């Protein structure tokens, strides 16, 4: 691990030339731009600024912090079109989806602006002449490491919850979308007091330097499981509190009593939305043999329609496309059958077709690991119980979906599946203000929702009683 105190980023010092990050548009391969990575001195300066601002910011009235967060939301809203365009250019996200992500981020900032000032402790019952209560306090310095697949919405949640509870923040956006991350930081910092929020552009070395700093109190990470494990190991040395939402291999179990065409539409939405580049995308499908044939026909038609209508975003870059196609190729070599897709298109960019694979088995990588692409691998099962058993296999525990009209099967899924979120009859269903705790290699802690305010604070217990005499 690197150490921000001595100026080292994996052996790099202030005297070394700065590495850069270059991004190309995944739609057509045209350049978006090049940015320099943060130098060791910039990492040190960001930590110093955050620490020097911490006391004043933590003692700012909660109502004032909430008001500033509302102003920050206003500023993001004013720059929504610009941020959405940058998101599309760097990640390939469809224009409407990119703008929707920015608007979701605005809504999240406003939500925390309202929730923060009313975040409170609890009274405790003690002696008649005594008083006991708990007081939530900011943890201190929060490092937020955010992903590229929904860069504004995810960052707004982590940054909003950390700031409104009185923490200072250093944000490192993904190196796959440094321009949109930097611009978001500029918009937010323009409203906040100096030193309260700093954005650093960089690759894994900058993230490691921040995660291993003993001055950091919280590390909030959304990204791969491998990176999440590395962060947890670093935090074990420094004592930082870790909140992480990491990879998933979310299953979809389809019962024999549902309409196969409707089930196919649900599966297509879960597997192909944002080209499968969503943390809770449907990654593996178990369909009852009684409806498998019409289901596969309808799912294949859904996939072809998305390709034909231009409703499928490209993958973020060719590196991810190679990884996705490698999983598909391995599955085909092991006996899976491609009903559509599975071919890398010619031409520039990082497009990949909506792909449906049948006859998949548990041994295939596409069924065991996160694919993060527009791939719907299907295994036909003899019963709902078999589908549920197979859905519970593996090292991930982010989310799962079941499609069934039977209450008993819903209850069995609730009892059997060790996941943070169980969705019944809607692959992306959920009420506003919801939250979840991922399991296994999918992470730990509440990464969003009102409970994220608890993650960003620690509790002090107060006891007061009358003096003697």
From TrEMBL:
Sequence segments annotated as region (Disordered): 1-33
Pfam families in UniProt: Aldedh
Record keywords: Oxidoreductase
Annotated CDD domains: ALDH
Residue ranges of every copy of the Aldehyde dehydrogenase domain listed in the record: 19-462
UniProt xrefs under SUPFAM superfamilies: ALDH-like
Highest taxon of source: Bacteria
PANTHER family (UniProt xref): ALDEHYDE DEHYDROGENASE-RELATED
Name listed for the protein in its UniProt record: Aldehyde dehydrogenase family protein
